[in-house]
C-alpha cells in the first residue's frame, strides 16, 4: 500500500488499453484477410475455373448479343486483377449480380430465403445443445459404464449417418406412415395469405401475431428437419462435453469442492460444467455454423425454402452468380460466428476477461 | 544375454531391444494390443477390411450386373430370394450395385487422402520448421480455408468444374487439407528445437532434408489418425455431392446418387433408397470406430480409458 | 483427553489391471486437539491417509480399517450423505496449490460463501459478512476487494489464505493440511504457517499436517509420524526428533544441510526392502 501501489494503476490501465487495442487490431486483420481470402476463392471459382464464365452465368441457350453484353458488363475483357477489384467492390456493396433463375438481384433472393435457414439451424442447435450437454455430462460422470458406451455409440452414428438419407427415412416414417408431423415446406398453404412475416423467423412471427394455429403448424413443419440437424449437432456437442468434463473432473478444485462438503450434483453442474462451459461455447458456435452448412442437404430433402435449397436449385440450373452469392453469405456467417465465439469465450473466462 | 531364451512376447516387450527393428516391432505390438483391447475399434477394422474385400472381388461377389437390369420383369422388386435387397426402377439388382459401389467409395477416400494429406503435411512442416513470415503466411492461408464452409465450397467448386466423380474428388481434397497442415505444424513445433534435430543441423543437413527425412516421418502417425477420422466425413460429403447430382453420374452405382434416384419411390419402395444409405452409414461408422481406436492406441493420453 | 480422531489399522488399496496397489498398509494413530505431522516421501501413503479420513479416496479405491472414529462417529459405517455433511463442516482440508485448488471461474468470495451456505442456513448478507470476517481472520487486509476477485488475480500466498478461509469458515474441529505451503514462495510460507497455527490454536482444532519436509513439520507440530511405503515407521514427539531410532528417519534428518559443515558427498536416502514389512 505504498507509493508503488498507488502509482501502478495508471500505467497498468494504459498498458491494458494498448494491449486491448493491439488485440482488436489483430482481430481486424484476421477478419479482413479471411474475408479477402473468401472473395479470392469465390472469384477464382466463378471467373477462372469455368472455361467460359459468361456461359456459366447466362446459360448456353442465350443469344449471341446477350452473351457479348454480359461479357462486357462483367469486365471479362479486363485483366484478372482489375476484374477482381470490380468483383470485390461489387460484393462489398452487396451486389452479387443477378440470378438467371429468378431474374432478381441475388442479394434480394438471399435476403428472402436466409431467415428460413437461420431459423432451422437455430432450432437445431437448441435441440442439439439441450440433449448433447446433459448426455455428455452423464457419459463423463459415469465414465466406462453402459450409459457412457450408449452415448458414445449414439454420437458415432450421428457422425456417420448421411443426414439427407436419415431425413428421407424420417419423412417416410413420421410424415407418410404415422402422420405425426407435417411434410415438406415451412408452413401450410392455408396460412399463406393470413400469415404476415415480421422477423422472417416464423415461430417468432407467429408468437408476435398471436396466431396459435399457425404456430402449431409451423412447429409441426420444423420439428422433423430441426431434430435431424439437432441429432447431428448433439453427436458433436455430447462428445466434446464428455471430454471437457473429464478434464475438469480431474482437476484439484473438484477435490476442494468435495472437501467443502458440496453435493455431487452441485460439483458437477455448478463447478465442473461451469468451467467446461467456456470451451463449450466455441463448440456450440462451430456446430451452429456446421448446421448452416448442413442445411444445404437437409433443405433439399424437406423442400425447406432456405439458402441451402436456393443454392442447390441454382446449381442445377447452372446459375453461377446465385451459387457464389450463397457461398459468400454462408462464408461470411462462418467468419462472423468464429468471431462471436471468440468474443464470448473472452467474456466467459475470467482469466481472459479484461476488467 | 542371448542365452536366456525368450518367448516371442517377451522378445517384443523387452526393455532392452537389441536392434532398431525389434524396438519398432515391440512398439507396434504394444499399440496393436491396446487397439485390440478396444472391441469397437476391432469392429471398425473388420468393417473396413470387409469393404476392401468387397471392392476387390466385386465381380465374383455380385450376383448380377450392376448396370444392366431387366426392365420388363424386374422393376422395383421388393427384397427376396434372387434379389436380396430388391431391384431399382431400371430392374437392376441393388445388392450388386452396392457391391460395385464400394469401389467408388474406396476410390474417393483413397484419392482424397492421397491428394490432401501430402499437401497438408508439406504446408504444415514447412511452416513449422521455417517459422517467421513463411509460417505466418502459410498459416493464414490455412486458417482462411479452415474458416470456410467445406461442403458449400466443394459445391461451388464442382459447379464451376462441372459434375463428375473426378471433379468431386478434387473439390473435396481442396477443402480437406487445412486440418492436416495444422496438425503437421503443431507436431513440427514440438520437435523443431529438440536436440536430435539440432544434431542433424550440426551435421550439415539441408533444411529440406531435415523436413523430409526427420520431421515428416514424426508427423505421420497423428496424421494417419486424423485422416482415418476424416474418411467418414469425406464419404458423407461425396455422398452428398452424389445425392445432389454433382458427384458420380449415372449409371455409376455411387451410393449417394443411388439414394437420389431411389428418392422418387421412397413412399412405396423405400428399400431402393434405404439400402445405399445404410451402406454409407456402416462404412463411415467403420472409419470412425477405426479412427477412434487408432487414436487411443497410438496416443494413450488422448482420450478414453 | 478424549481423542478427536482414532485410526486403527487403516488400509487403502487400488485394484488395477496389473494388480492391487496398496497405498496405505495398516496405519494406526490417535489425535487429540493437537498438531500432528505426517512426513514421508511421495508415494509413502501420507496423502492417501488424509484423503481416506476425509472420505475423498478415488472411487475405485478400497478402504479397510479396524477402526476409523471421528469424535464418536464411526466413519466406516457412515453413509455417503453423512460423510458429506461432515466434510467442510467438521473435518476440512487445505490442498497444496491454490492455483489449482480454487475454482478459476468463481470469485473467491462466492467460493467461501458456498462452503458456509452448504452447511448453515444463513442468508446472503449474513454469509457475505461472515466471509469478510473470515478473510480478515486470515489477515487479508482488504477483504472487500479480495472477495470480488478471481483466483488468477491474487498471488499464491493470498490464494492459500483464501483457501484456508474457505475451509475454516464453517468452523471444523479437524483440519487436514496436505502440503499447504509447498507450492508457495519461501518468504510467504512462514506467513501462511503462522496464520494456520494461530487459527488452529485459537479455535482449539485438531490439525493433521502432511508434508515431505521433516524440519518444517518438526518445528510446527507437537507430534510427528514418519511414513514409508504405506506404513508408519516411527512416531515421536517433535521436540525429541533427534532421538529418532529408525534408519529411514535418521536418513531424512541427515539430508538436511547445516550451515558450516562439509557435505561431500551428499548423503543419499537408502531404502531397505525389509522396512516395507
Automatic annotation (TrEMBL), chain B:
Entry-linked SUPFAM superfamilies: MetI-like
Classification via InterPro entries: ABC_transport_permease, BP-dependent_transpt_permease, MetI-like, MetI-like_sf, OppC_N
Biological processes annotated in GO: protein transport
Keywords recorded for this protein, A-Z: Cell membrane, Membrane, Peptide transport, Protein transport, Transmembrane, Transmembrane helix, Transport
GO CC list: plasma membrane
Domain ABC transmembrane type-1: 106-291
Membrane protein topology class: Multi-pass membrane protein
UniProt keyword Ribosomal protein present: no
Pfam families: BPD_transp_1 (PF00528), OppC_N (PF12911)
Record GO terms (molecular function): dipeptide transmembrane transporter activity
Origin superkingdom: Bacteria
Subcellular locations according to the entry: Cell membrane
Transmembrane segments: 40-62, 108-130, 151-174, 223-249, 269-291
Family: Belongs to the binding-protein-dependent transport system permease family. OppBC subfamily.
PANTHER family in UniProt: D,D-DIPEPTIDE TRANSPORT SYSTEM PERMEASE PROTEIN DDPC-RELATED, OLIGOPEPTIDE TRANSPORT SYSTEM PERMEASE PROTEIN APPC
Name this protein carries in UniProt: ABC transporter permease subunit
Species in which this protein is naturally found: Shinella kummerowiae
TrEMBL record, chain C:
GO molecular function, one term: ATP hydrolysis activity
Signal peptide: none
UniProt keyword list: ATP-binding, Cell membrane, Membrane, Nucleotide-binding, Transport
One GO CC term on file: plasma membrane
Protein's name in the database: ATP-binding cassette domain-containing protein
Keyword set includes Cell membrane: yes
Membrane topology: Peripheral membrane protein
Family the entry assigns: Belongs to the ABC transporter superfamily.
Domain spans labelled ABC transporter: 5-254
PROSITE patterns cross-referenced by the UniProt entry: ABC_TRANSPORTER_2
GO annotation terms (biological process): transmembrane transport
Database matches in CDD domains: ABC_NikE_OppD_transporters (cd03257)
InterPro entries per UniProt: AAA+_ATPase, ABC_Ni/Peptide_Import, ABC_transporter-like_ATP-bd, P-loop_NTPase
Principal subcellular localisation of the protein: membrane
Compartments, record wording: Cell inner membrane
KW Transport (keyword) present: yes
Highest rank taxon of the organism: Bacteria
Amino acid at each position: 500500500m505504498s507509493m508503488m501501489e498507488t502509482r501502478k494503476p495508471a500505467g497498468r490501465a494504459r498498458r491494458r488499453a494498448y494491449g486491448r487495442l493491439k488485440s482488436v487490431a489483430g482481430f481486424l486483420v484476421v477478419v479482413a484477410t479471411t474475408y479477402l481470402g473468401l472473395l479470392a476463392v469465390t472469384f477464382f471459382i466463378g471467373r477462372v475455373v469455368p472455361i467460359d464464365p459468361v456461359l456459366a452465368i447466362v446459360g448456353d441457350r442465350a443469344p449471341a448479343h446477350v452473351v457479348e453484353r454480359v461479357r462486357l458488363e462483367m469486365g471479362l475483357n479486363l485483366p484478372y486483377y482489375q476484374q477482381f477489384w470490380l468483383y470485390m467492390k461489387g460484393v462489398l456493396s452487396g451486389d452479387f449480380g443477378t440470378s438467371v433463375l429468378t431474374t432478381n438481384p441475388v442479394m434480394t433472393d438471399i435476403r428472402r430465403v436466409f431467415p428460413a435457414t437461420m431459423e432451422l439451424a437455430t432450432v437445431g442447435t437448441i435441440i442439439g445443445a439441450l440433449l448433447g450437454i446433459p448426455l455428455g455430462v452423464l457419459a463423463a460422470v459415469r465414465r466406462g459404464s453402459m450409459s457412457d458406451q450408449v452415448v458414445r455409440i449414439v454420437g458415432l452414428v450421428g457422425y456417420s449417418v448421411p443426414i439427407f438419407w436419415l431425413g428421407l427415412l424420417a419423412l417416410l416414417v413420421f410424415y407418410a406412415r404415422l402422420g405425426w408431423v407435417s411434410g415438406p415446406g415451412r408452413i401450410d398453404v392455408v396460412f399463406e395469405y393470413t400469415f404476415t412475416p415480421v422477423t422472417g423467423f416464423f415461430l417468432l412471427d407467429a408468437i408476435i401475431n398471436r396466431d396459435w394455429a399457425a404456430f402449431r403448424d409451423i412447429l409441426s413443419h420444423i420439428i422433423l428437419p430441426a431434430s435431424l440437424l439437432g441429432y447431428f449437432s448433439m453427436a458433436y456437442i455430447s462428445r466434446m462435453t464428455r471430454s471437457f468434463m473429464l478434464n475438469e473432473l480431474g482437476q484439484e478444485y473438484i477435490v476442494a469442492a468435495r472437501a467443502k462438503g458440496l453435493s455431487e450434483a452441485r460439483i458437477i453442474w455448478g463447478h465442473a460444467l461451469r468451467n467446461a462451459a467456456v470451451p463449450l461455447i466455441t463448440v456450440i458456435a462451430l456446430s451452429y455454423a456446421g448446421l448452416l452448412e448442413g442445411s444445404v442437404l437437409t433443405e433439399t430433402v424437406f423442400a425447406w425454402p432456405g439458402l441451402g435449397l436456393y443454392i442447390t436449385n441454382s446449381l442445377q440450373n447452372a446459375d453461377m452468380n446465385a451459387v457464389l452469392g450463397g457461398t459468400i453469405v454462408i462464408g461470411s456467417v462462418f467468419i462472423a460466428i468464429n468471431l462471436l465465439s471468440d468474443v464470448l469465450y473472452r467474456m466467459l473466462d475470467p482469466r481472459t476477461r479484461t476488467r | 544375454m542371448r542365452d536366456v531364451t525368450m518367448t516371442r512376447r517377451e522378445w517384443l516387450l523387452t526393455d532392452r531391444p537389441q536392434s532398431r527393428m525389434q524396438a519398432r516391432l515391440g512398439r507396434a505390438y504394444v499399440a496393436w494390443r491396446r487397439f485390440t483391447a478396444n472391441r469397437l475399434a476391432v469392429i471398425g477394422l473388420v468393417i473396413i477390411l470387409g469393404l476392401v474385400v468387397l471392392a476387390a472381388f466385386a465381380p465374383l461377389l455380385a450376383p448380377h450386373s450392376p448396370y444392366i437390369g431387366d426392365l420388363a420383369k424386374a422393376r422395383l422388386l421388393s427384397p427376396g430370394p434372387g434379389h436380396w435387397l430388391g431391384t431399382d426402377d431400371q430392374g437392376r439388382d441393388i445388392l450388386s450395385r452396392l457391391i460395385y459401389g464400394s469401389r467408388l467409395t474406396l476410390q474417393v477416400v483413397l484419392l482424397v487422402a492421397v491428394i490432401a494429406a501430402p499437401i497438408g503435411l508439406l504446408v504444415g512442416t514447412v511452416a513449422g520448421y521455417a517459422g517467421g513470415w513463411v509460417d505466418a503466411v502459410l498459416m493464414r492461408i490455412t486458417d482462411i480455408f479452415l474458416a470456410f464452409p467445406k461442403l458449400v465450397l466443394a459445391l461451388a467448386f464442382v459447379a464451376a468444374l462441372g459434375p463428375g466423380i473426378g471433379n468431386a474428388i478434387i473439390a473435396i481434397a481442396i477443402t480437406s487439407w487445412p486440418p492436416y497442415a495444422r496438425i503437421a505444424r503443431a507436431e513440427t513445433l514440438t520437435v523443431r528445437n529438440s536436440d536430435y534435430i539440432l544434431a542433424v543441423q550440426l551435421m550439415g543437413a539441408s533444411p529440406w532434408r531435415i523436413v523430409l527425412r526427420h520431421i515428416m516421418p514424426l508427423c505421420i502417425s497423428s496424421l494417419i489418425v486424423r485422416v482415418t477420422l476424416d474418411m467418414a466425413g469425406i464419404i458423407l460429403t461425396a455422398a452428398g455431392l452424389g445425392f445432389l447430382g454433382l458427384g458420380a453420374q449415372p449409371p455409376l452405382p455411387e451410393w449417394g446418387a443411388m439414394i437420389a434416384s431411389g428418392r422418387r419411390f421412397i413412399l412405396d419402395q423405400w428399400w431402393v433408397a434405404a439400402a445405399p444409405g445404410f451402406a454409407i452409414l456402416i462404412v463411415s461408422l467403420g472409419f470412425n470406430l477405426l479412427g477412434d481406436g487408432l487414436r487411443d492406441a497410438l496416443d494413450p493420453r488422448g482420450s478414453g480409458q | 483427553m478424549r481423542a478427536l480422531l482414532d485410526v486403527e489399522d487403516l488400509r487403502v488399496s487400488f485394484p488395477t489391471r496389473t494388480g492391487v496397489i496398496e497405498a496405505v498398509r495398516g496405519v494406526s494413530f490417535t489425535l487429540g486437539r493437537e498438531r500432528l505431522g505426517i512426513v514421508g516421501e511421495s508415494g509413502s501413503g501420507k496423502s492417501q491417509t488424509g484423503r481416506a479420513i476425509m472420505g475423498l479416496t478415488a472411487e475405485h479405491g478400497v478402504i479397510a480399517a479396524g477402526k476409523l472414529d471421528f469424535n464418536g462417529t464411526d466413519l466406516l459405517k457412515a453413509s455417503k450423505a453423512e460423510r458429506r455433511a461432515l466434510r467442510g463442516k467438521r473435518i476440512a482440508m487445505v490442498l497444496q496449490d491454490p492455483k489449482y485448488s480454487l475454482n478459476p471461474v468463481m470469485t473467491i468470495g462466492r467460493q467461501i460463501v458456498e462452503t458456509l451456505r452448504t452447511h448453515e442456513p444463513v442468508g446472503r448478507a449474513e454469509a457475505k459478512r461472515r466471509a469478510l470476517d473470515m478473510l480478515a481472520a486470515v489477515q487479508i487486509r482488504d477483504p472487500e476487494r479480495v472477495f470480488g476477485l478471481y483466483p488468477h488475480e491474487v498471488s499464491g500466498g493470498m490464494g492459500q489464505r483464501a483457501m484456508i478461509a474457505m475451509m475454516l469458515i464453517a468452523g471444523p474441529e479437524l483440519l487436514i493440511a496436505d502440503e499447504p505451503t509447498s507450492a508457495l514462495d519461501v518468504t510467504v510460507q512462514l506467513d501462511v504457517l503462522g496464520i494456520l497455527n494461530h487459527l488452529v490454536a485459537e479455535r482449539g482444532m485438531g490439525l493433521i499436517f502432511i508434508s515431505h519436509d521433516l524440519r518444517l513439520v518438526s518445528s510446527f507440530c507437537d507430534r510427528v509420524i514418519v511414513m514409508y511405503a504405506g506404513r508408519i515407521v516411527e512416531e515421536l514427539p517433535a521436540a525429541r526428533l533427534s532421538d529418532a531410532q529408525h534408519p529411514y528417519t535418521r536418513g531424512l534428518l541427515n539430508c538436511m544441510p547445516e550451515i558450516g559443515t562439509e557435505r561431500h558427498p551428499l548423503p543419499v536416502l537408502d531404502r531397505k526392502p525389509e522396512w516395507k514389512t
